[in-house]
């Protein structure tokens, strides 16, 4: 019997929780261990809706379909249980949390992910090592989470969280949003550094632009149009979209 894929989305249909307008209209996507998948599409195509429903956001209603992690159906699991099982979301707009330091946040998050036997010292040592590898100023450890951070600092902090928490699957929701080319390269280098340490990590990178994919070079690229995956292919598909845009896929 073959091993189950790392992450599977099957027949996913999602509507707004309030009005019931259907946004995602049957999404199928499979990520195997160690693969990078990119999801591209214009504004309003449903990309961020997909990211949010994968993490169990109450803002949306699941109409049909399933989400599986390592063969286990997590469709009805609450967000904290999904995160504990190894599903990670890097937010497009990371929230500021005044009064909670990066160190305290990650200590609690790691204890929730791996169990209460993880000590603050272990978390500190893991953070220290990864901050060096990600070329982050160690003083960030004691700053309040994302408060006063630049856009690039917020995104790098998301990569730090991904490194320390050791998820099975990371969903990067427009991590390149608002970054200049230098900051984007720093973030992409961080993702590559994490994957060197954990080559089985599966990544779903949601993006508008090809520039992140130039740095990461995904195994598969998917085009989301009007709530449906209209096309899939290799990295060359992103290159074509850069030249032709989305007009060829219709409204």
Strand-residue fraction?
Answer: 25-35%
Low-confidence stretches: none
CA distance, first residue to last residue:
42 Å
User: How much helix is in the residues?
Assistant: 25-40%
User: What is the tally of helical segments?
Assistant: 8
Return the domain count. 1
Output the CATH class name.
Alpha Beta
* Average pLDDT, all residues: 88
Rg over alpha carbons: 18 Å
Count of strand segments: 12
CATH topology (fold) name: Rossmann fold
Overview of the molecule:
The protein has 251 residues and is α/β, with parallel strands linked by helices. The protein has one domain (7-95, 150-249): Rossmann fold, CATH 3.40.50.300. It is built from 8 helices and 12 strands. Strands 6-9-10-3-11-12 form a 6-stranded mixed beta sheet, sandwiched between helices. A hairpin with a 2-residue loop joins strand 11 and strand 12. Helix 3 (102-114) crosses helix 4. The model has no long low-confidence stretch (mean pLDDT 88).
């Amino acid at each position: 019997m073959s091993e189950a894929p790392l992450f599977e989305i099957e027949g996913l249909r999602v509507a707004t929780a309030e009005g019931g307008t259907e946004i995602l209209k049957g999404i199928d996507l499979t990520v195997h261990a160690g693969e990078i998948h990119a999801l591209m599409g214009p504004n309003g195509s449903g990309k961020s809706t997909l990211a949010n429903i994968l993490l169990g956001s109450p803002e949306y209603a699941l109409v049909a379909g399933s989400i599986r992690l390592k063969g286990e159906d997590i469709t009805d699991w609450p967000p904290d249980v999904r995160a504990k099982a190894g599903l990670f979301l890097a937010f497009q707009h990371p929230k500021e949390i005044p009064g909670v330091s990066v160190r305290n946040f990650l200590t609690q998050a790691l204890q929730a992910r791996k169990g209460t036997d993880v000590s603050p010292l272990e978390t500190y040592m893991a953070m220290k090592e990864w901050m060096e590898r990600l070329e982050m100023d160690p003083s960030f450890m004691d700053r309040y989470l994302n408060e006063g951070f630049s856009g690039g600092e917020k995104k790098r902090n998301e990569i730090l969280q991904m490194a320390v928490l050791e998820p099975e699957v990371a969903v990067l929701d427009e991590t390149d949003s608002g970054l200049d080319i230098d900051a984007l390269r720093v973030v992409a280098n961080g993702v590559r550094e994490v994957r060197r340490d954990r080559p089985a990590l599966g990544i779903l990178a949601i993006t508008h632009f090809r520039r992140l994919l130039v740095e990461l070079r995904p195994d598969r690229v998917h085009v989301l149009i009007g709530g449906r995956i209209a096309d899939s292919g290799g990295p060359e598909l992103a290159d074509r979209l850069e030249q032709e845009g989305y007009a060829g896929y219709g409204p």
